Amino acid sequence: MIADVTGGAAADAAPAIELRGISKAFGPVQANKDINIRVRKGTIHGIIGENGAGKSTLMSILYGFYRSDSGEVLIDGKPTQITDSLAAIRAGIGMVFQHFKLVENFTVLENVILGAEGGALLQPSKARARKLLTQLADDYELSVDPDAVVEDLNVGHQQRVEILKALYRQANILILDEPTGVLTPAEADHLFRILRGLKEQGKTIILITHKLREIMEVTDEVSVMRRGEMVATVNTADTNPSELAELMVGRKVLLDVQKTPAQPGEVVVSVRNLQVIDRHGVERLRGIDLDVRAGEILGIAGVAGNGQSQLLEVLAGMMPGTGTMTMNGKDMDLSLRRDNARTRREDSIAHVHEDRHRCGLILDFMAWENVAFGYHDRPEYQKNALLMDNAAILEDAKGKIERFDVRPPNPMLTAESFSGGNQQKIVLAREIERNPDLLLVGQPTRGVDIGAIEFIHKRLIELRDQGKAILLVSVELDEILSLSDRIVVMFDGKIMGERDPEQTNAQELGLLMAGVVGDSVTGDAA
Amino acid sequence: MDLATIVQILESTLRLATPLLFTCLAGLFSERAGIFDIGLEGKLLVAAFFSAAFAFYTGSAWLGLLAGIAASVVFALIHGFASITFRGNQLISGVAINFLAAGMTVVVAQSLFHQGGRTPPLSGNARFERIDLPFADALRDVPVIGPLYSNVLSGNSVLVYLGLLAVPLTWWVLYRTRFGLRLRAVGENPAAVDTAGVSVVRMRYYAVIIAGVLCGIGGAYLSTSLAAGFVKDMSAGRGYIALAALIFAKWRPWQSLVAVLLFGMLEAIANRWPNLDLGLITLPNQFMAALPYILTVVILAGFVGKAIPPRAGGEPYVKER
Question: Which of B112-116, B122-126, B300-304 has the lowest mean pLDDT?
Fold first, then answer.
């Protein structure tokens, strides 16, 4: 990392963006409190903070989605009213959202010109855009086929379309919200090359992320937000990850998971030649062989969409497959003609689904009800043959919520009203407290803030140390590396290889995740 | 079956398909912009009534047409108000419009004309006259082509030709103009349109207003061209049939024309042979009359392959981060 020029000439020029005293409240919640920030021209400025720290609200104000309650925005030193997205675009601000704002069945070209067509007829607009795209592709390694339909592109390319959209509108300031969440390490590296190229051309870039490594790798300055306030802005060269983490959380955080070596016991679950073809006839799993032993965490690394989700769902009895699965010596029925998700739970398999909103919780229901789901027919929850014993469920839920430090510890709130991290704790409390012999867990810390991540990781290690088997799927390589006792990498429905976390690194795993085996490195996997 | 019968069926097909065509294209604009429009039926009906009533009072079919369009646009705006501005449920708003139209037309007709909810019969300039295309007479005696040109294509109401022109026009607007690009985008992913600095609300209002205008023309055609005056419930489910045709056409303009011609032909056949004798059995007239509706059910039940509606269809747009 080359430290940027600080002070001197650079400080004299007006900052690309200056926010003064920005405040924004949603009802009683103060999302932004008196935010002041200066983003210097031609730099990459990182903004980090936990979920709910107010980063996205701040950027939404800058892009005209919300109006701030007070404070002012200065672009290149000039006070600017950003009333809507159009005003933001006119002020030279481009935004790449975490969830892309692309029309999926339009071509790249159509997406790029949408809203900036430059004339009532499409043909001339498209011709103009095509020329410009070729030029941008050469200048910034941003090549995308202009006639490709967006939904046929991989996420890395879709993201390039978003960047192209902003550049086509002549944005000088580019805001990227969690841009690497969906990318492979190679794609992320490519993105960073693009960003550095843009910076060299004098563009200003704001990078919002919760990944400390990216902040350290690519930014010049970094601002930290905590509970709606801007707590610090520092030169990246003068700081380090643990200092930033401490600023984010307000206390010391253990970034590395503390654990003793695993003591693997008997094989708990054994899977042979597992194959899955989904509803659309696509082969999702092509012959998976796996063993998970008692007292170990088997981590499955891979880019999202390479069969990990299907693997968890098949093992949990949510989706049929073929092959064999033995749990504690007992044959499981993968066709799901006899078995289902409930019988799997009876066979001591617990499942923390990767999508807690879709499959882990009913958001409109209260926390105590959510703590019982999936186990609601257990005898201890029944009053008699007809009625459930709500008092017993509530009592039970209270204990679990307390032990898992769910905040606020109020079982009567709907699941929706908890933050992402606390929702995840509710799901984990339900599944872990049943003491399953096998815990299937997908993306345990997706959308979860740092404090809760630490807590969740600790509980998973504790479960392992009690001699339980854990199958962990995560797209976060750091998480896989720090939690797992063994790592297998999945690509395109197959296992690419197994690695010992002590003897591998992100680069090696990244290549496997991109389907590159052995020494046949083919360069940019994106 | 001789040529004369075929010509007669085809001529009838074109006439009967025209109100469906306008309604189907109306639905196309609305739904492509993400606003489901079950209220096509109501707009068609209210336009039919106001066209007939104004044509009767003014003696001009053209003024009747304008009144029909105005009434239909007002109804379209009610739908827009409920489903765009207030983000209400589009199906419920549409159903409400249908009920409102069915009730209101009869009540107003009764209080104005005292003829049991109908308008007095229209005649002369209060109806759209048939216009003959050039050389219709000269070509009449040419075998096959002659009758097809002179009797099927020529000699229709001006609104029929307007409908046929509306198809390529719709295609052009949708796929060749900035407006069309934005319209389609707003039905697929309104967030993309919003973040590109284009107002989702305005685009969707444009779409429902266009739908109102097209329904207005379709309704005027019903009462001042196809029939000679308004009778109670004269739209007779055509709004729903047009919706089925729209799904059949997978929300595309040229395919919409083919779909409505198919429905028009079924109706024409049912009119021509109330009791179709198939040799072994004779199909009763009730069955024949029900044919278009039966086809509607078959289409809606998904027997035409996968029809993917615009992805943001039916969902009010709420800004989110």
Answer: B300-304
* Residues in chain B within 8 Å Cβ distance of A85: 194-197
B195 and A95 in contact by Cβ < 8 A? yes
DSSP secondary structure string, A405-443? T-SS--TTSBGGGS-HHHHHHHHHHHHHTT--SEEEEES
Residue A438 C-alpha, separation from nearest chain B C-alpha, in angstroms? 37
Look at the block and give the residue holding tokens 């909103």: A357
All structural domains of chain B: 3-300 (1.10.3470)
B177, B185, B321 ranked by CB distance to A120: nearest: B177
How many cross-chain Cβ pairs, A to B, lie less than 8 Å apart?
75
B186 pLDDT tier (thresholds 50, 70, 90): very high
Coil, strand or helix at B276: strand
Sorted by sequence, the CB contacts under 8 Å of residue A272 that are 6+ apart come out as: A289, A323, A324, A325
Interchain CB contact of A101 with B (< 8 Å): yes
Contacts of A167 in chain B (CB under 8 A): none
The answer to whether the Cβ–Cβ distance between B192 and A101 falls below 8 Å is: yes
Dump the DSSP string for A126-195. HHHHHHHHHHHHHHHT----TTSBGGGS-HHHHHHHHHHHHHHTT-SEEEEESTTTTS-HHHHHHHHHHH
Residues 149-208 of A with CB under 8 A from B: 165
Taking any CB pair shorter than 8 Å as contact, residues of chain B touching chain A are 175-182, 184-185, 188-189, 191-198, 311, 319, 321
Q: Do A114 and B196 touch (CB under 8 A)?
A: yes
- 3-class DSSP string for B23-79: HHHHHHHHHHCCCCCCCHHHHHHHHHHHHHHHHHHHCCHHHHHHHHHHHHHHHHHHH
Distance between CA atoms of A492 and A496, rounded to whole angstroms? 9
Contact (Cβ atoms closer than 8 angstroms) between residue A128 and residue A57:
no
> Residues of A with CB below 8 A from B319's CB?
65
Q: Closest to B177 (Cβ–Cβ): which among A114, A115, A121?
A: A121
pLDDT in tens, A397-454: 999 999 998 888 889 999 988 888 889 999 999 999 999 999 999 999 887 877 788 8
Average pLDDT for chain A: 88
d(CA B173, CA B207): 12
Task: Catalogue all structural domains in chain A, each as residue range(s) with its CATH number.
Answer: 1-92+172-251 (3.40.50.300), 99-169 (no CATH), 267-361+436-513 (3.40.50.300)
Instruction: Give the DSSP letter string of A236-305.
Output: GGG--HHHHHHHHHSS----SPP-PPP---SEEEEEEEEEEE-TTS-EEEEEEEEEEETT-EEEEE--TT
Tens digit of each residue's pLDDT (9 = 90 or more) over A151-196: 988 888 999 999 999 999 999 999 999 888 778 778 888 999 999 9
| Minimal CA separation from B188 to chain A, in Å | 6
Count of C-beta atoms within a 10 Å radius of residue A274:
23
Model ipTM? 0.89
